Amino acid sequence: MKGKYMKAMDVVMTPIHKEGHVFVVIFFAVSIGLFFLAEPLGWVGLILTAWCLYFFRDPERVVPQDAGILVSPADGTVCAITEAAPPAELGMGDEPCTRISIFLSVFNVHVNRLPAAGEITGMAYVPGKYLNAAASEASDENERQLIRMTTEDGHDIAFAQVAGLVARRILCDLHIGDNHGRGERFGLIRFGSRTDIYLDKKLAPKVSVGQTMIGGETVIAASAE
User: Fold this and answer.
1) Per-residue pLDDT at 85
2) Would the pTM count as exceeding 0.85?
3) Does residue 60 fall inside a structural domain?
4) pLDDT of 13 higher than 70
5) Can you give the residue range of the structural domain that contains 16?
6) Residue 101 scores a pLDDT above 90
7) Which residues contact residue 81 at a Cβ distance below 8 angstroms, ignoring those fewer than 6 apart?
8) Which of 31, 72, 139, 193 is catalytic?
């Protein structure tokens, strides 16, 4: 019982991403107004306010420091591991590479983290559809933010923030030429989405379909050499 209480308190005390502040204020203000109309509606509003706090939570993570590894860029579930050409917009050629796709439900942490330390060498925003983020075609047809990185180990990788069925806003704080550390926060997608990562031939996946990811902590790939 004590363990469950402590877990509940951890959720309550977890800080939220700055992008969530305005939503929490709006949800709470609407809830107060609903109480004047009908008390049951006010309670529904407060429940939705609590969910909003939960959605935008931004917990600290313990980032592995082992050499030659990549960590998951997002919380969620691995929904596909396939061979696919990297995004054409990033100029990485058309030779297929391993793509790992992570589906984020509305209950996952939606703060994205960098899979490796390195330099941002390319970026492209692609407008698109809002298909279910778990669908295989979402990687190529949905709205997405594409990022290319040269890691400190010399790997040429790419990763993508992909909008989903109810996601309507992709936030990315990166710029070409930036150098960042592994596991650093770099953006957010709301509300429900997908994150893809493209590995070069010198990297091998270390996860399987259906596995649960913890952004910034779970080792998703490692050097194949």
Assistant:
1) 94
2) no
3) no
4) no
5) 2-55
6) yes
7) 98, 99, 100, 101, 205, 207, 208, 209
8) 193
* Six-digit token string for 94: 């058309």
In a domain, 62, yes or no: no
**Residue 200, token pair as written in the block:** 């070069």
- Kindly state whether residues 95 and 193 are assigned to the same domain: yes
Q: Half-sphere exposure (CA, 13 Å, Cβ side) for 20?
A: 23
Confirm whether 87 is domain-assigned. Answer: yes
Same-domain pairing of 165 and 131: yes
Q: Out of 31-35, 125-129, 130-134, 221-225, which region has the weakest mean confidence (pLDDT)? A: 130-134
pLDDT of residue 77: 94
User: Across residues 181-202, what is the average pLDDT?
Assistant: 88
139 is catalytic: no
Asked if 98 and 171 sit in the same domain, the reply is yes
Report H helices in 38-104.
Answer: 39-55
CA distance linking residue 214 with residue 91, whole number of Å: 29
What's the farthest any 2 CA atoms get from each other in the chain? 65
* Residue that terminates a domain, selected from 32, 55, 78: 55
- pLDDT category, 7, cuts 50, 70, 90? very low
For all residues of the chain together, what is the average pLDDT? Answer: 84
Residue 39 Rama label (left phi>0; alpha psi -120 to 50; beta): alpha
Is the residue at 63 inside a domain?
A: no
What is the number of domains present in the chain? 2
